[in-house]
Write a structure and sequence with these properties.
The protein is of the alpha+beta class and 452 residues long. Helices cover 11% and strands 27% of the residues. The chain has one domain. It is built from 7 helices and 30 strands. Strand 21 and strand 22 form a beta hairpin.
Length: 452
């Protein structure tokens, strides 16, 4: 398996420099490492949502996670929580190098198959708008400034779009399913400067996030909770640009009704009463934002994604993201059928949590609420592995049955059809023994990086 050489952090960076480049209207090259530079040039396409800033995207200083990582109680910590590089195999999915157990050094191993075909074994960067820092598990991408009709500032990012050509040009993820999400999208128009003017949809970032877990071993569901940012009834991260072909973008708000000087945190120490909890650094001078990444799986392969919004308050509190009420208008339960805007995400409620991150089988919401690290969710289709990707994920909560646990069958799940088979075999149900299926809420999680 010579392709794994590049999954050491240093060599992984070298590999991805070779892997990820694109030419779409304007030259754009991305290099990934702890300190890297990406150059972004303006697009000439009139239907792009806003001109990307011209110049360098550079992450030269590692941003601080002290507030989240050092908090006595991770369930009351503000900010993104721990990143994907955790202290043990239950909280760190970064693959080992092939030199483990081999008689030769790393230099003898060739490049991964994804260099010739991105659908083969990776790594593969999916969101190509900026550099991924594989040492700290972050991505730094362009920050955009738009306005409400009343002139209030709207600071936002872009991650996905339902137009394949725009996706290629801007380095965004393409999702055909977003075309069916118009009923859950806020609307906007481009002004004479190419900036977005939004009709509705605002976010309040002042709430203090907290969660009070249930008793030990049954931390989920919590007994009390509050998301750290709350949208109004018209807020969804999805935006349909009415005077640019009706294209739908995934454009989460990261700060609202503040000036650049209010959110100038280029080296971290972010004020989370003004900025989205997933932001680790924000630089309005250079128009960049650094976001936390989260561990997960897709068809057995480890991935990193970002989590920005949820359609219910409980999900937003657990996910460290924004409660987006308009997302509740999305049609759920249809998976890959005609007019379905969603893909499925599988979330264990009572996965293994003993010994926290030291447990390689660790997974689930109770584990998350017990130790503060993320639950290792299982995503359905993502670009390069399937055609049914959507950044809007229909949450499928799953529960191991008491009988399966008693027989020692409970383990870390990594693949959609493995889960569906276990449901069919009676090892897994919905929460409380109810039928397995949609839990009735959705999460906005853009895929960023496929590690394998």
């Amino acid at each position: 398996m010579n392709y794994l050489k590049h999954l050491t952090r240093d060599d992984f960076s070298v590999c991805l420099r070779r892997l990820i480049s694109r030419r779409a209207g304007a030259a754009f090259a991305i290099m990934i490492a702890a300190s890297v530079t990406a150059f972004a040039e303006d697009s000439s396409r009139h239907h792009a949502p806003r001109r990307a800033f011209q110049g360098r995207i550079e992450q030269s200083v590692a941003v601080s996670r002290d507030d989240a990582a050092a908090a006595v109680d991770p369930n009351t910590a503000q900010g993104p929580g721990p990143g994907p590089i955790g202290p043990g195999p239950g909280c760190n999915l970064f693959p080992a190098p092939p030199s483990v157990g081999a008689a030769v050094g790393l230099s003898y191993f060739g490049p991964p198959p994804s260099t010739s075909n991105p659908s083969l074994v990776g790594p593969v960067q999916q969101l190509k708008t900026g550099p991924v820092d594989v040492t700290h598990g972050t991505i730094t991408i362009p920050l955009y400034l738009g306005h409400m009709k009343n002139g209030k500032n709207v600071w936002y990012i872009l991650s996905d779009v339902d137009d394949a050509q725009v996706a290629t040009e801007l380095g965004l993820n393409f999702s055909a399913k977003l075309t069916f999400a118009a009923n859950a999208s806020r609307t906007a128009n481009l002004d004479q400067n190419g900036d977005l003017v939004f009709d509705k949809g605002t976010v309040d970032f002042s709430p203090v996030r907290f969660i009070k877990p249930g008793p030990a071993g049954q931390e989920f569901p919590p007994t009390a909770f509050q998301p750290g940012s709350v949208g109004d009834a018209d807020y969804s991260p999805l935006v349909q640009i009415q005077n640019a072909g009706g294209v739908i973008y995934n454009a989460p708000i990261v700060a609202f009704d503040v000036n650049a000087s209010d959110i100038n945190f280029p080296n971290g120490n972010v004020d989370y009463s003004k900025v989205h909890d997933q932001v680790l650094a924000i630089d309005p001078s250079n128009m960049t934002v650094t976001l936390n990444l989260i561990n997960g799986f897709s068809f057995g392969r480890p991935v990193w994604y970002m989590s920005m919004d949820t359609s219910i308050p409980l999900g937003a509190a657990i996910e460290h993201n924004t409660y987006a009420p308009l997302m509740s208008a999305l049609h759920l339960g249809g998976d890959d059928t005609f007019s379905s805007p969603i893909e499925r995400i599988f979330i264990a409620t009572n996965g293994a949590e003993q010994n926290a991150c030291a447990n390689p089988q660790r997974q689930g919401l109770s584990a998350d609420l017990a130790d503060g690290f993320r639950p290792n969710n299982v995503l359905g289709g993502i670009p390069t592995l399937a055609n049914d990707y959507s950044p809007v994920w229909d949450a499928q909560l799953l529960e191991w049955t008491p009988d399966a646990i008693a027989k020692g069958f409970r383990g870390q799940l990594r693949e959609e059809f493995q889960i569906l088979t276990f449901v069919q075999d009676g090892l897994i149900t919905g929460p409380g023994g109810k039928p397995f299926g949609s839990a009735g809420f959705s999460i906005n999680c853009a895929i960023v990086l496929r590690l394998l």
